[in-house]
Every structure is written in structure tokens, then in C-alpha cells.
Amino acid sequence: MTDNTVAYRKTDILILGSGGAGLFAALHAHKAAPDLDITVAVKGLLGKCGCTRMVQGGYNVAIGTGDSVERHFMDTVEGGKWLNDQDLAWTLITTAIERIHELENELGCFFDRNADGSVHLKAFAGQTYDRTVHKGDLTGIEIINRLAEQTWARRIDRMEEHRAIALIPARDGGRISGVLLVDVRDGRFHFVQAKAVLLAAGGGPTMYRYHTPSGDKTCDGMAMALRAGLTLRDMEMVQFHPTGLIAGRDTRITGTIIEEGLRGAGGHLLNGNHERFMTSYDPRGERATRDIVSRAMFEEMRQGRTGPNDGLFITMRHLDRDLVRRQFKGMVERCADCGFDLAGGLVEVVPTAHYIMGGVVFDTSCRTSLEGLFAAGEDTGGVHGANRLGGNGVANSTVFGGIAGDTMGPWVEKSGAFADPDRSAIDAAVAHGLRPFAKPRGDLLDMRERLEDIMWDDAGIIRDPERLHRAREALSGLGEELAETGVATSDRAFNLTWHDWLNLDSLILVSRVIVEAALARENSRGAHFRDDFPEEGDLATSYFTTARLDGERIGVGTAPVEFSRVRPGETLIREEAETAAA
Amino acid sequence: MSGREPPEPELVVEIWRGRESGEFVPYRVARRENQTVLDVVSHVQRRIDPTLSYRFACRVGMCGSCAMTVNGIPRWTCRTRVDRVAGNGRVRIGPLRNMPVIRDLAVDMAPFFDKWQRATGRFVPSDADNRRTFARVPPGSRERQAADAGIECIGCGVCYAACDVVAWNSDYLGPAALNRVWTLVNDSRDGARREHLAAAAGDAGCHQCHSHQACMSYCPKGLNPTAAIAGLKRETVKSLLRGEL
Question: Is A110 within 8 Å of B148 when comparing Cβ atoms?
Fold first, then answer.
């Protein structure tokens, strides 16, 4: 007999996720409203799972002499191919300045300095100014360690290794009542009733054969949002990082990032014939934006000019090796552990799925269309448009996480209330979660690999309708297969194979949305490239895609981009605007 | 490698199954190029026995979630190549020592992080109103070098599992927590030096350390908590003598 009991508990604010967004939200909500009960629930251990921790490059912020928020904003919007929600982008860039000082001075991050003791700003691909604050090439560890310490020190409850599986609406609709979670350790269900819920579970396009995110990432937040009826935007925009490591078959480390800063610092990409190729694709060569470099690499791979594991190579050996060892210490050590010499040799790499620009539609105070539900970080869409600049990711999660905390604290005090949950929604989510225990055991690893192949081959770096339709069919079949596939044991305690099933369940749904959005965009912008529509289309009439779940069907639409601050062809950078006018 | 010799080379791996009580169970795993211990554990769960429990996240040595005991030594498994540890073609993998076992290879790290807090392992701003500047600290300065020495700790628990003093005295704060306190004591921007030293000087603090140096030997990041603890011993004694503690 399957135990379908659900334990109940209450908290004023429930935060899903413990990356930059979740922990900043917890700290800011606690500061804004110290009397509230705040709980952080996270799939793994607090601050240890997720992707903020994995940030290598750094944190973009316009604080350099001669730099400006206008310049950072224009880089972000140009990089985003004019699809960004400009108010969200403006909020990101202006608040990043406040946040970086908070990280350094209040949380205790100790970022790298210039020889004179001032903060060091490094170059990063696709930007017109050196503006990336960092701590060596392990910036994320510094940020998340300091955030976790400050969270532990405060009256903030933790539900670690608790996986959220459904956002539960109120019985009378119209608002959220709480979240249904599984305690990974004992496998039991918990309903946490909350006045406010923050969706900050992160994204992570791990449905592609090569991917960078942490192993726990499976788009659960986006899947839950879809099932709760929320609208997602820009879901065709999946960013591929140009350089993921290839270590060979069945290696967990395959797909993980070889740092972008290597190209910024003068690293070369070579094809299988050991020839540079980037300069024939873009005048910026290896320092072109991620989308351009990834596509060029994919093209080289399609031409068959590859290395032993079907990848290409990155090399730093023409540069000062000691400097490379010093500047990219973490990266050099990691490659050495895998048997590669980054400073002096060739390391085989492949473009790798890195970040989903799309996500839940939200506003500059992190509200969503569902009352009581807030969102921040990679679960959200609109900040980055069609392409995210390296260094804008951790800025995004920490900026909007903090804003979410600032918003939720006072909001709960003023208008928050516990709502009775829709019991039928809880029952349905429990039944869905327990489904694999009633089905015959299947090969979930094989299904995961098939999913990754479908998405890599047919919905990846270069797309066309024939491939996308094939992916649509294949995903539909895979979804039906999963529904009839079970796990081997009825013991739910720390049952990773059950979670493999739940992971696939989230990933297949979000993959379907990516495919539908990719079919809907009939032009090529940023990370989205259609072989049949290679032009970017008219910028002045730019639109973004929207997607929502309607029963089992995915409803896709488009909406015009509102150029609330600057129109295509114009700039906010004063000196450039003056030059253009002269 | 010619890749022609059948059959595929194999590794015999014995993995701990159970909780506090349990047994090592043998599995046969295909050898692969660049295979890590985490890859072996994943292979067993994904292809042989779906009930095996373990923990991992980042898979690249940044999160410190996947440490286990490998042939008697605590290691980060995502960055430990099988080649390095399987001299005789056998590998024995168990959970970390000194932490309660949840199941199989997954341990409860809560005591480890609780001690990080008990040791006051958190930054306290010396100038809470500083919102717009970065403290000017040259990278070559003594203060920066000292603060940087132990900062890249990923909280994997390897040193804590390696430490005999933790095994003897479950209250002992342990190497990672004390190492963090030492980085704070050296951080010229921190405003709570006295509190940090007082926490480190307590009954469960730095003076319990016997300088066995297992923490230093096994730290996957090459940090030296033993030296940090020695620094704390020195500074706490100085502060005591000056009547500051």
C-alpha cells in the first residue's frame, strides 16, 4: 500500500531555491520584516546545489571610470537583440551597482583587486567595456559561500533536500496557497502553506546532450509554473556556451564549462585540423558573443573538422603560461584532474547548453500573474532577451532575488494571508508523483539520453521546421512512454531513481515548450537560429513569444516588444548619440 | 589504446549499502577513459542497482556535495579519477566518516555547517554604512594574502571526515570551521575580530587540535587548515595575555 499521506506546515514566506536569487530573497525579506517566518526549501543542500555556485566569470556592473549604466544597458539590449523587457534590463543594471557593494561590504565577498588596491574589472565577451567584478575564476563559490553563511546565521528555516513538485492554488482560486514538496531523505510529501512563495529554483537546459548546469537542475520551477497556469516567454532562447569540456562516454564532467574568460584573455579555438576558424565567421574572432561562436563551432563540427571525441579545441599555449596558470587557476587545475594541460596544450571542447533566457513573465518588483507568487533568477524571462551576456547571469539572480525579498516582506505584512489550499490539486500532484511506483520498471537513463539526443539534434544550435516537428513528435512519444515507466523499488527514501523520473517529467514538458516557441519564431535572433529564416527580421516590430499550458496542449502566442527606454537604431549612450546627431 | 581487446576492462567496486549498519556490496563496472569515482557510483545507480543513494550536484569540484570515503581516504569523487585510486583494480567506496549516514553514501552534513556557525564563520562588516566603495587592499599586501590563504574552501567536509579529533570529541568545531574563522580574523574589512577569536578559543575550539595534519593532507583544494588553526592558537593566546578575550 503506497503511503500518500501529506504532512502540513506553515511559513509566512516560502522560498524555492538557494542560489543567488533564493538566498538574497531570504536575507532581504528577513531584513525588511524580521518578525516573519521565512523558509528556504531546496532540492539539494543549501547553497551547494544549483548554478550560482558554479559561476566562474564574474559579475557585470557599470562602476568603472568611463563606463556608465547607459553603456551597460545598451550592451545588454544589443546583446539581447532588442527582445529584452527594457524596464527589467534597466532594473538589472542600475541595481547591480547597489548589489555588488552589498556583496563586498555586507556579506563579505572579497573580490579581486588591481595592483593599487582598487577593484579589478575584467573583460568579457560581447561587451564594449571591461566591467566584470570577479574572484579569480571561482566567483560563484565566493558569492554563495558568503550568502549561505549569512543565511545560516539568521532566523531563516531550511528545508534542505526537499524537492518542490507543485504550486498549489487557493481553494477559491486567484492566488497561491502554498507548495507541495517531497522530502528527498524519507520520500514523504509535505504541503507548506505560505502567504508568499518565491519561485527561484533556477532553470538549466539539461535536456541537451551537452549541458553545463549542476546535476540537480531539471527546469522544475518552469514546469511547476506551467502547470500552475503561468505564462512563460522567450522559451526558444536557449544559450549555448561555446566551450564545454568533452571527457568521453559516461563522464559526469562532460559538458561542463571551460571558462569564457579564456577567450577574452586571448585564447584560440582550433578545429580538428588545428586551425583557427573564428575570424572567418566574425571580425571579433573568439571574442564574439556566445551565440555566434557556438554557431560557428557547430558549423565546423557539421563540416567534420573535429577532434577524437567529435569536438574542437581551445588552446592558450601561445600565451604566457605562468600567467594563464595564475589567472585561471581553478580551470587549469580542473583540466589537469581530467588529464588535460590547459596552459600548454589542447583541450577538446564542444558548445554546451548553458542557460535559458526565457521563463516566467514577471515585473520589476518580481510579481507574477498569480497573486502571492513571486519569481526571480533563471526561472524568469525578459531580462536578457534573446541572449545573455556573460556576467549578467549572477547579476540577474542576486539583483532580482534581493528585490523579491524587499517586495515580499512588506507585501506579506500588508496584504498577505494564509489561503486554504485546493485539496484536489494536492491530491492530483501526489497521485502524479507516485505514478511510477505503480508501473513496471523501465530504463530511465536510456530515456534521458534519448531526450538529450532529440533536443541536441533537432532543437539545438541550428533549427529548421522539419527537425522541430520531428522533435515535437519524439517528445510527445517520450512523454507517453514516461507515463507508463516505473521505478524498481517502493522504498521512497533517498530514491534517486524516482527523482530521475521526476526530473524527466519536468524536462520533457519544458522541452516541448522550447520546441513550440522555436517553431513560432520565424526569424533568427540571438540564441535562436532558424536555417529557413536566417535574418533577424524587422527590429522595429520585434515580438517575443509566449507559452502556456492549456490542459495537455501548449498554447503559443507572440506579443510586441515595448521599447520603453530606447528604440532600435537609437542609443542611450550620450557621446554616441551626440556623434550620430552631428 | 587499440580498443580491440575484448572483453571490456572492468573494475570491481565495493559500495557501502545501508545506514549506520550495513555492508559493502561488490559490483562490476566497465572501465572508461577519464572515469571518476562519481562516474562509477553513477553507473551503479543508473545501470545496475537503481536503489543506490548518494549525493552530487555540480560535478566539477565547486559544490562539495559528493565527498565519500574511497579506499579509506576521504575524497571529492567528481574530481578523483579511478586511475589514481584503483591500483589493484579494486575500489571500496563508503560514506564520509564523522557525520550521520542518511543512506548508503549520503551523509547528513548539518553538524558540519552548524559548527561553521558556532565558530562565528561569517563576515561582520566593520563599516555597515559603506555602500559605495571597495576597501583599498592591494593584492600583494600581507593582509590580502593572509585572508586569501584559506578562502577557496568549498565546504566538502573532507577535512572534517579526516580529523581524528572530531572522531574523539564530537563537539570539536573541526578544521573547516576554524579555517573559515582564521580567514575572517585576517580580513581587514571584518569588524568582529574579538568575537571570532573568542569562538575559536572555546573548549571545542582550536586548542583541541593535535596537529595530525590529516585535514591538510586530504583537502582537495590544497588548503592548509592545520596552519590556520596554528594561527588561531597563536592569536588567541596573544589576545588572552593582552586581556582582550
Answer: yes
Residues 32-91 in B contacting A (C-alpha not used; CB under 8 Å)? 32-36, 38-39, 42-43, 45-47, 50-65, 78-79, 81
Paired sense of beta strands A312-315 and A268-270, if any: antiparallel
Task: For residue A30, indicate whether it is catalytic.
Answer: no
**What pLDDT, in 10s, does the model give residues A129-154?**
999 999 988 899 999 999 999 999 99
Interface touch A214/B53, C-beta < 8 Å:
no
Nearest to A64 by CA among A91, A90, A99, A97: A97
DSSP A116-130: TSSBP-B--TT-SS-
CATH of domain B10-107: 3.10.20.30
**Predicted local distance difference test score (pLDDT) of residue B5:** 59
C-alpha to C-alpha distance for A487 and A528, rounded to whole angstroms: 36
Report the residue from A50, A256, A494 with minimal CB separation from B59.
A256
CATH 1.10.1060.10 applies to domain B110-241? yes
Task: Residue A562: count other Cβ atoms within 10 Å of its Cβ.
Answer: 11
A215 touches chain B (CB under 8 A): yes
User: Catalytic residue at A134?
Assistant: no
Q: What is the ipTM of this complex?
A: 0.96
What pLDDT does residue A576 have?
78
What average pLDDT does this structure show over A5-15?
97
pLDDT digits (tens, 9 = 90+) for A409-465: 999 999 899 999 999 999 999 999 999 999 999 999 999 999 999 999 999 999 999
- As a whole number of angstroms, the distance between CA A374 and CA A96 comes to 20
B121 neighbourhood in chain A, CB within 8 Å: 149
Say which amino acid occupies A232: L
Cβ(A368)–Cβ(A411) below 8 Å: no
Q: What is the pTM of this model?
A: 0.96
How do the domains of chain B map onto residue ranges?
10-107, 110-241
- For B63-118, what is each residue's pLDDT tens digit? 999 999 999 999 999 999 999 898 778 899 999 999 999 999 999 999 999 999 99
B131 touches chain A (CB under 8 A): yes
Q: Which domains does chain A have, with CATH numbers?
A: 243-351 (3.90.700.10), 425-543 (1.20.58.100)
Query: What's residue B1's pLDDT?
Result: 45
